[in-house]
Amino acid sequence: SGSSDPYCVVKVDNEVVARTATVWKSLNPFWGEEYTLRLPRGFRNLAVYVLDEDTIGQDDVIGKVSLSRQQISAEPRGVDSWLSLAPVHPDEEVQGEIHLELRVPERGHPRVLRCHLIEARDLAPRDPSGTSDPFARVSCCGHTLETAVIKKTRFPHWDEVLEFELAEGEPGEAVLSVEVWDWDIVGKNDFLGRIEFPLDTICMAPTKGWFQLLPFPSTTETRGGQLGALRLAVRLVEDRVLPPHYYQPLIQLLTEPILYPGQSPAGTALAILEEVTSGESRQDVATKLVKIFLGQGL
């Protein structure tokens, strides 16, 4: 019909946190929807995807706007502008983490790099069933080894050790690359994410932990607004909660009777605040009182 049925999906670190209504048969949709999101302290990225809803088949992705935490934090008053939609490529839409242990034993000749692939979690679903068939592919010094395929899961547990014999001499700029793929019986395998480690870092000390999977470096050029633009207002507000003892002097001040010269004690400051503020404004009043008190060094 020459139009679309657009709606937006909001993701924080690839987790869907909100969805707008669908605006039917429009290339210039207006949503006017506002969301307040409680974000984890270490969040990295906020993305808004614009999709075209289809009654039959899968919805089409029109494009996305992606903002890093640093981009949002850099604007004290927030981001409020038209932002061009970027194309969405499957190889860049990765999520999840992988649990690894990498080490080079001090003894033994020749030296061997031991890569223990333990498990992964929250991988992207690449199959129609909403799961994947993940396996890991590890490359180092021109050699590549793979783990077994774990069928129908986004939380595979491999517990496999892959070993690479290291050449004599310094590792130089060599890297260990770990990629996770979804195995397909027909067609090519789907990319699920990757991570790289400098070999010299592993040789100096063992590396173990959960690591976020990353996309392939993007080689696509921006389309300069050909996919349209999204008017977006985003503001990041951070509140810091201190240990309880910091607030004790203020609590004591608010709950003690107020003394007037030459008169008997009146009500507390807290009781007076309750009378002169509405329920909706008390959170703002409380936050500002704390900031004033701490700002005075009290």
TrEMBL record:
Q: Does the keyword Zinc-finger apply?
A: no
Q: Which GO terms describe its molecular function?
A: calcium ion binding
Q: Keywords for this entry?
A: Calcium, Metal-binding
Pfam families for the chain? C2
GO cellular component terms attached to this protein's record: membrane
The C2 domain extends over 1-83, 94-211
Q: Is Protease among this UniProt entry's keywords?
A: no
Homology family:
Belongs to the MCTP family.
Protein name, UniProt field = RASL1 protein
